[in-house]
Write a structure and sequence with these properties.
single chain, 262 residues, alpha+beta, five-stranded antiparallel β-sheet, three-stranded antiparallel β-sheet, 20 strands, elongated, cell projection, FlgE/F/G-like, Flg_bb/hook_C_dom
């Protein structure tokens, strides 16, 4: 019975939907996390009688057809890149982006990855790095005897050196944009890589046209709405239960048919 297969595709789809929702909820407190949603499409149809077909020799046309659907399939888990709220931390190297752009990170293999997570530290060489020790680009080194570290909205990093009463610029953090930021590939550690869908990276300066500004002493929170996620979770659970009920009903109908031959 086709209903068994159709309902099974529905259960599989809702299982994936719950997995996506659970990942969103699990990352509720993950800095810079961007939530995902599951997108579905109906499967190919069996056209028992095509709409618009000729119904008689007199040329009458069938006004409606008989189309039996094959179920549902998952076509993607698009990521929402909307702005998350900023939370103040007071740490000098906690940086948040308000608007467009990603921090550019140099990986050990020489490639670049991109992140909205501005939880930065200094390594044993004084370089500004991520939690995994990978340097933020362009590489900025803070002298070990420096004080008064500041980062302005354009990404200029300044410190006060011994014997000086004024701050000196040590480097300039940049931001990177993409034509289709939702097309970036997540790789874990709050980081993304470019793909043919995202388009090539476009490096620029913060707080200039098309790029967001940098806020020191703050971090961007995940853009996950708990109430919305819980509502979606309940809806997915009910949809799964209804598909399971269809399988049960189809099984009972097959049992009834089998009983006729006993």
């Amino acid at each position: 019975m086709q209903a068994l297969h159709t309902a099974a595709t529905g259960m599989a789809a809702q299982e994936l939907n719950v997995q996506v929702i659970s990942n969103n909820i699990a990352n509720l407190r993950t800095t810079g996390f961007k939530k995902q949603t599951a997108a579905f499409q109906d499967l190919i149809y069996e056209h028992v009688r095509r709409v618009g077909a000729q119904a008689s020799d007199q040329g009458t046309i069938v006004p409606v057809g008989v189309d039996i659907g094959g179920g549902v399939k998952t076509v993607g888990t698009p990521r929402s890149m909307t702005q998350g709220t900023l939370s103040q931390t007071g740490n000098d190297l906690d940086l948040a982006i308000s608007g467009e752009g990603f921090f550019k990170i140099l990986m050990p293999d020489g490639t670049f990855q991109y992140t909205r997570d501005g939880t930065f530290q200094m390594d044993n060489q004084g370089r500004v790095v991520t939690a995994q020790g990978n340097p933020v680009q362009p590489t900025i080194t803070i002298p070990n005897n420096a004080s008064g570290l500041t980062v302005n909205e354009q990404g200029q990093v300044s410190v006060t050196l011994p014997g000086s009463s004024t701050s000196a610029v040590q480097g300039q953090l940049g931001l990177t944009r993409f034509i289709n930021k939702a097309g970036l590939q997540p790789v874990g550690n709050n980081q993304f890589t470019e793909t043919p869908s995202s388009g090539p990276p476009q490096d620029g300066t913060a707080n200039t046209e098309g790029y967001g500004k940098i806020t020191q002493g703050s971090l961007e929170q995940a853009n996950v709405d708990v109430v919305s996620e819980m509502s979606d979770l309940i809806a997915a659970q009910r949809a799964y239960e209804m598909n399971a009920k269809v399988i049960s009903a189809a099984d009972q109908m097959m049992q009834s048919t089998t009983a006729l031959f006993r």
